[in-house]
Design a protein that fits this description.
Number of strands: 20
Distance between the termini: 5 Å
Radius of gyration: 19 Å
Largest sheet: 10 strands, antiparallel
Order of helices and strands: EEEEEEHEEEEEEEEEEHEEHEHEHHH
Shape: globular
Number of helices: 7
Structural class: mainly beta
Length: 337
């Protein structure tokens, strides 16, 4: 996988702010802010100097990647989905130069040098800390893109899907727009009101009736610079997520449109306009959303990129299956960071 931010992915900044009684905890100990505090207070700042010491490396198979039956995105499958990646530990990633933190930037990438019949080496990291009711601001300069890729930035609670999952960035193959989403294990519906994104599914329950399994509720960002090639060509941008007891809202600002209050680290979301995704109204967020860790990761093929491969432009342009393409064409993944 390769993510480039200005300081992480390559990412420039990953900052977490708290408001009111928002809290974070580590080793079971919570740190609570006074309700009397006004404005957002910087809680954690992940940058090139401290990022990897604050994140754990994940090396197990994805939970969704080993499912069978109805695949992510709704395509029927009669067997276990073929995966074409291997998450590797920190020492292996450093030896293979899949990660780095220099020149004020965090780089997270994938193997682009070796044929990989047993799975292309990739990276998935999760924060050591868990959070509740926070604002996340991620300044990202470059993200993975292209046939076979499935990059994401998301938060994840315990015992998925009961602990819920918030997806700030996700997409597959040659997708041109971002698809933020919310996943939970109980019925929880949104209307699409108060957002700029086009509502794609309204029931946040990953097993909700009358919509594809695992999709939850989500929106399509109408900005073509919000994901993939268009995002990278525009120099990246900022993704922001504000989580309160009343709503979860996700914004994207391209590099030339980043609000000055974000640059000054004094976020004022009330001045940002409508978010791309607005999870509000039909969900008791305090009961379903808790103890969220931050995750970056890039999957190859799998339940989504693999299951929609045949209906994407990638099947025709490569004349290969997703696993074969990912395994046998390492050089095309040099930009998967």
């Amino acid at each position: 996988m390769a993510w480039k931010t200005r300081p992480i992915w390559t990412v420039f900044l990953m900052a977490l702010f708290v408001l009111g009684d928002a809290r974070s905890h580590q080793d079971g100990h919570y740190h609570r802010r006074s309700r009397e505090l006004s404005g957002y207070q910087l809680r954690d700042d992940y940058n090139a100097d401290n990022f990897f010491e604050n994140f754990d490396f994940f090396t197990e198979p994805d939970q969704l990647m080993v499912s069978s039956g109805m695949g992510y995105g709704g395509e029927d499958k009669n067997s276990i989905v073929l995966m074409q990646y291997r998450y590797v530990n920190e020492s292996a990633t450093r030896e293979a130069q899949l990660i780095s933190n220099s020149n004020g930037k965090i780089y997270i990438g994938a193997d682009y040098q070796n044929v990989a019949p047993t799975g292309r080496a990739s990276v998935r990291v999760s924060s050591k800390k868990s959070y509740e009711r926070v604002m996340v601001i991620a300044d990202i300069e470059h993200m993975p893109h292209g046939c076979g890729t499935w990059p994401a930035l998301w938060t994840l609670g315990p015992n998925w899907p009961n602990g819920s999952e918030l997806v700030l960035i996700q997409g597959v193959n040659e997708q041109a727009i971002n698809k933020p989403a919310f996943h939970v294990g109980v019925d929880c519906r949104i209307t699409g009101a108060g957002q700029t994104g086009n509502l794609t599914t309204s029931n946040c329950n990953v097993y909700g009736p009358n919509q594809p399994t695992f999709v939850g509720c989500g929106a399509d960002d109408p900005q073509e610079c919000s994901y993939g090639r268009g995002f990278n060509e525009a120099g990246g941008g900022v993704y922001a997520m504000d989580w309160t007891s009343n709503a979860v809202r996700v914004w994207f600002f391209s590099r030339s449109r980043i609000p000055s209050d974000i640059s000054l680290r004094d976020p004022k979301p009330e001045t940002w306009g409508d978010p791309v995704l607005n999870v509000q109204g039909g969900c008791n967020l305090d009961s379903v959303l808790r103890d969220q860790k931050l995750l970056f990761g890039t999957t190859f093929c799998g339940d989504w990129a693999g299951s929609v491969w045949s209906s994407s432009s990638c099947a025709a342009s490569t004349n290969q299956t997703c696993p074969d393409y990912v395994a046998n064409n390492p050089s095309v993944f040099e930009e998967a960071y």
